[in-house]
Amino acid sequence: MNAKGxxxxxxxxxxxxxxxxxxxxxxxxxxxxxRARVLVGGHPLGAGGTGRSKKDAERAAAExxxxxLDGGAPDVDDAPLPPGxxxxxxxxxxxxxxxxxxxxxxDATLDEVRANAARLYRxxxxxxxxxxxxx
Length: 135
Hints:
Elements (H helix, E strand, L loop, with lengths): L2 H12 L4 E8 L6 E8 L2 E2 L4 E3 L2 H18 L18 H14 L6 H18 L8
Antiparallel strand pairs: 1-2, 2-3, 2-4
Helix pairs in contact: 1-2, 3-4
Pfam families: dsrm
Keywords: RNA-binding
Protein name: DRBM domain-containing protein
């Protein structure tokens, strides 16, 4: 299994963009431990991973992110929305909903899927510079 490659392919298929891997080392030079995490759209996905090498830590983080995609919603923040009316782009909203359905576990409630779709849509619009309009 190539967890990093599988994750990149899965995110691309879901239209969620590219994964970014962040890794840091800690400990004495002769006994380093690496900790990595996966970011998608600037938000962590999965619990991250550790390893004796950067490669092992990134592989573990990718496996954790794949597990998060399989078992539930991504770990996205619940930052409050800026006030105002958000523009509606039907095709983008439909894709966000499709992605939220894919990311949500089989036991997810309608409210959880709806909340995930709203977060994905919000994050995508903010990344593209299409925030809320003044009411």
